[in-house]
Amino acid sequence: MPELPEVETIRRQIEPEVVGRTIAGAHILDERWTRPLPPAPIAARLVGREIVSVGRRGKYLLVGLDDGSTLLMHLRMTGNLLLAERGEEARRFGGERLYESSSEPRYLKAELELDDGRLLQFTDPRRFGHASLLEPGELGPYLDARIGVEPLSDELTPELIGRVAEGRTAPLKSFLLDQRGIAGIGNIYADEALHRAELHPLSPAGSMRREHWEALHEGIVAALEEGLRNGGASIDDYRDSRGEQGSMQDEFLVHTRAGEECPRCGERINRIVVGGRSTYFCPACQVRLRRRRRPKRRVRP
Ligand SMILES: [Zn+2]
């Protein structure tokens, strides 16, 4: 699944290609793409609009239009964005991925025709990707209801991590995957951030103390920035779960590296399943925190 680094890479690549272009035609071929709303009225609304910005929040891509509305897109598991010149093979945005045949025309879900004749295409073999057209003023509330703080902004601080984690008994791995706390982190970068922070993925989130908030903050930022430097390289969980591995794993410290040596201490990396997700960590140098107990009241005799 594309995580923040890959979605941001796509955003950076797409922005100079489409900003300033007007949408000359819109074709939505899969009604699931705009669910629960029907696609036809959305396609009609898009035609004639100029694209004025391409932004991102968490894993959402935000295409700003000249009437103040926003076409919000989420790639989910296997969504792709491509740009096609007529008569030529489409170019896919983002880092290398190992999805099988994911950008083939038969997986086309939506297509925006730009005023220079090029086509912005959304393909998705597994059909979980979706889009919403939000009216002016709707974007903020939409995002606030779904995602939390942006990790590569000044908003994310050790103190904020401590506040969000306070009282939470969920394991740190699940805590990081919960988009309502910190947005944009998925299965890969959660593992990478926890390894950098030297924190065990099963530690209860609320058991962290100040030094752990600081370590986790540094770990999140470093892992995501490393991902961005690598062009948002990401592997596909689907292939991962079938035991297939690709060249992308070379980038990771622990993710997909079960049985290999920890790059920090040399212990063998373990794989466990947390909340249904493959989780990789070093059992030697990632500290398992104990659940914090409230101080006991003294009982008077
Ligand atoms: Zn280690």
Can you tell me about this structure?
By secondary structure, this protein is α+β, with helices and mostly antiparallel strands. 26% of the residues lie in helices and 19% in strands. The chain has 8 helices and 11 strands. The strands form 3 sheets. The chain has a 5-stranded antiparallel beta sheet. Strands 2-3-4-9 form a 4-stranded antiparallel beta sheet. Strands 10-11 form a two-stranded antiparallel sheet. Strand 10 and strand 11 form a beta hairpin. It is elongated. The structure holds zinc ion. The site of zinc ion has 7 residues, from loops. Residues 262, 264-265, 267, 282, 284-285 line the site of zinc ion.
N-to-C order of helices and strands:
HEHEEEEEEEEHHHHHHEE
**Overall average residue pLDDT:** 89
Low-confidence segments, given as residue ranges, are: 237-247
Strand content: 15-25%
Work out the helix count. 8
Distinct small molecules bound, one entry per kind: zinc ion
Side-by-side strand order of the widest sheet: 1-7-8-5-6
Topology of this protein?
Layout: H1 4-18, E1 23-28, H2 39-46, E2 51-57, E3 60-65, E4 70-74, E5 80-84, E6 91-92, E7 108-114, E8 119-123, E9 130-134, H3 139-144, H4 158-165, H5 172-177, H6 187-197, H7 210-229, H8 237-241, E10 270-274, E11 277-281
Antiparallel strand pairs: 1-7, 2-3, 3-4, 4-9, 5-6, 5-8, 7-8, 10-11
Helix pairs in contact: 1-7, 4-7, 6-7
The site of zinc ion has 7 residues, from loops.
What features would you highlight for this structure?
alpha+beta; N-terminal domain of MutM-like DNA repair proteins; five-stranded antiparallel beta sheet; 19% strand; 8 helices; binds zinc ion; four-stranded antiparallel beta sheet; 301 residues; Helicase, Ruva Protein, domain 3
